[in-house]
Specification:
751 residues; alpha+beta; 5-stranded mixed beta barrel; 33 strands; 30% helix; globular
Length: 751
Amino acid sequence: MKDIPSKTDILTWVKENPGKASKRDIARAFGVKGADRIELKKMIREMQADGTLKKGAGRKTYRGDGALPPVTMLEIAGETPDGDLMARPQTWEDEGEPPAIIVIEKKGDPALAKGDRLLARMTPSQTEEGLYEARMIKKIRHSERRALGVFRAEGSGGRLIPVDRKQDEMQIVDVGEAQDGELVEVVSLPGPRFGLKRANVVERLGDPGAARSVSLIAIHAHEIPNEFPESVVAEAAKAKPLTSLKGREDLRHLPLVTIDPADARDHDDAVCAHPDEDPGNEGGWVVWVAIADVAHYVRPGGALDREAKKRGNSTYFPDRVVPMLPEELSGDLCSLHEGVDRPCLAARMRLAPDGRMVGSTFHRGLMRSPASLTYEQAQAAWDGAPDEATGPLLEPALKPLYAAYEAAAKARDARAPLALDLPERRIELSPEGQVTSVRFRDRLEAHRLIEEFMILANVAAAETLEKKNRPLLYRVHEEPNPMKLDALREQVEESGYNLPKGQVLKTKHLNQLLDAAAGTPDAELINLSVLRAQTQAYYSPENFSHFGLNLRSYGHFTSPIRRYADLTVHRALIAAHGWGDARNPDGQTMEERDGLQKTAEHISMTERRSMEAERDTIDRYLSAYLADQVGAEFEGRVSGVARFGLFVKLDETGADGLVPVSSLGAEYFRYDEGRAALIGERSGKTITMGSKARVRLAEAAPLTGGLLFEVLEVEGFGKPARNAGRGGSPKRRVAKAKIKRAKAAKKARRR
């Protein structure tokens, strides 16, 4: 007689055999016969009652909790960074997030895009736990793709002029109440394969020329959540200021000042420093970095937490911010305002005289900032021009901070992180939202001070959690791809610079290249080229180090108001130190630990989404700023080369525009992908990245952010030939003539 299997054995077998798990199948698999089957059925009923087993699609079969049936209706959710399609179940009744699903496409399958539905056969992945592989059985229907654009009325319908430069016009079938010239959102309809796609208007967004429409376009185009659900608003409204010291250290005696941009919308970090009194670290420093205790207000699993995780991060535009947390928290209770008590998590770091971090501890406390300073205020005070706010803080707060930073800078220089120097352009708007100027942001020593102390606190958080064997989300930046480095090497050689080959590339080698270009006209484009050669940073529960900062372990701890990754690190620290209320925990939970991989993938996606939306908005603002200068001439440099043309970045504003290859004259240009160059077939003259260029603005389209330039002159190439006639190079014309004669001779022979 065979023993009755355990519940664990049954659950494991059911998950490994989806679609075959009826009571009879289970009994046969474990050799249960006769009277023992009664006990087996009782065990299955118990597992069903406690939710461990669930009825499958056939109702006579079972599946494990959190498992998918063997045949499932799916919806395409998007793509991974590697281009693989990810899907989600059309329906999901279990608690928690559905498992990750990757769609395995085979030859002959119809093309799939985000929003498409399909019936698929599901199998658990053999390589990654919790991942399913889906193979298409049938595509159900085309997705309802949404698009933004300007509605142009034509008869009873109209057309959509899209805001996305990559999208074609669409025919509007159902106009609704949309008016000619309005910005609208449409949903596509099934239609013919060729010709204009059809669509219906589903939302009116107002005047596309209005200043606030610029960022609104990006919000809708990139599907960034912009409205908080009522449950989130209600939970935020219940939050109250914390004044109790229960379970906290009193840090209100520390001169923890916030130093932020003048237009900062929140203040989530404060710093102070003082000499280390430990005789074993003579000449060393103690640096405190206090961060808003967002975890106290945003508890795991609550409405605020779910929405913050969904958004992943705040998104910043020149005219507005789409916050991760409601204003009650981001702008008030979690913001370290001057003169008010605020809960915080603080890193206390001990620096040796040479700046090396020789120890760190974390503290959950209550702080009160004596001042909220701007970078300009702090720098002016250090440079000898304090004002009313910084004067009293110069001796107790600012001088020790700068002295500690001088030590930290020594360790930074010895570590040699990637020293990119890319000027940040700031778009200034009028009260009405119109662009008044585009200028470079000043890069002060105060910026570097705050940046270095934030990096040290992030390192301390990661190393502390590693010592306490507590999982966390790392900020990962892997080494550059060898192919990208080869391309970078060829590009910089075109400009007369060198990049070592045949050795393990380190940040110091890239810094030598950047130093060689510093102070020259090539500096910005060399920096851009080095930046483009880097891999995309992302979040991961596995530590693959941070190449750019040249750090072994690095997490994000310092901005929990605007990044969900930092909130997860705060919770991990709270759990690791045993802080918080056991009845209402605010530390890392088992569910959060188990879901770190999915969280990492999701917030890496939301970060890229926000970056793209912010970049698109800047492009549209720059295009609007230059729209009344069509015909004007500008100096710039070639910032990119493609088969269809080249991109030129203007020196003054940093705006990027396209020069179509067809406008370069009658000569045929061959694209050399390895060198990222356009080469004239007749003359052999070459256009590469970094070449100086003088261009004329031919077209500015604020709606799409597009700029079109005409080249007047390119360094090393001269003026494009405009009088050589059309029809391509002489070689190509001769070749075509030979082919034509050969065809005519062949016809004659046949006759």
